[in-house]
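To whoever is on call:

I kicked off a structure prediction for a single chain this morning and the downstream step that reads the tokens threw a length-mismatch warning. I double-checked the sequence; it's 345 residues and nothing unusual in it as far as I can see. Pasting both halves so you can look.
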Amino acid sequence: MDAVAPAQEPAPPAAVELIALTKRYAGGAAAVDGIDLRIASGSYCCLLGPSGCGKSSTLRMIAGHESVTSGDILLENRNITDLPAAARGTAMMFQSFALFPHLSALDNVAFSLKMKGVAKAERHAKAQDLLERVAMGHLAQRKPGELSGGQQQRVALARALITQPRVLLLDEPLSALDPFLRIQMRAELRRWQKELGLTFIHVTHSQEEAMALADTMVVMNHGLIEQVGSPHRIYNAPATEFVARFMGGHNVIDTGAGKVAVRNDCMLIAPAEAPAALGAAAPIPATITDVEYQGTYVLLGLQARAASGPTGVSVMLPEAAFNSRPYAPGEDVRLSWNAAHPLAA
């Protein structure tokens, strides 16, 4: 008798699902143009793209701060498309933190409970507990003007969490911070997301930030989704020329037989008179335009004479390789790459 295969359990519902989601503003093209997206429960998702790509409009529609032209938004299989923001089960952390300057950190965190009529002792106890969780309990009585940027962000996070959201929405929360603090705070955001077990949806224009934080990256352009995937996959296997160029670290080169995207640390460079490397793609003549020392590596900027015309190309050389054979602006060279491993653009 044949064995009966065990029934497969249904996949858990996505925390957020967007179905043909569209946003049109009066007299303009679609800011978000019929996108479909599933965001796994308990994951950190970054919406990434240039200004005007639709990422912030998408976030605001999920939050209920922007009306939907057409399509649906589901939160754990519940249609929230037309619900008011307070009834959705989401909370928003804004770029500016939007803290009340005249209220203490404690009262800022407790404010939404006050609006719901929760007694003072109860709301303060809950607010104090959340401030302790984000290492701000000892500064509960300070006002925002007496706090650093990183401390204000922690207060804003605690204020968002007091509503017990299923999904936390973050609108470029690190852009107002200095570079050192930005790196520190993104590590804390990642830690908080894992500890809380919540779904985070984070809008950013920074490729570095998205790669450091995300389980899933969503690259958008002109209101459409260009690619969805892990940071590793999107960086190493860009699905389109736009993604390859936007993520940086890639060169898109027209070989005459089609375009390829090649990471700049996978490029091969040799003096113009050197023989072609065995196993490399047919070399392309180029001229060095810039040489930038970056510590452990040297970044060369070049003007390549590709099949479709002059093309800007960058090459990352380890410091030791550059020191053994330095290159200078104005020098003619030949570019190539391992012919077995180009990334299709």
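Update from on-call: the warning came from a stale cache, not from the record. Cleared it. Sanity check on the structure: The mean pLDDT is 89.
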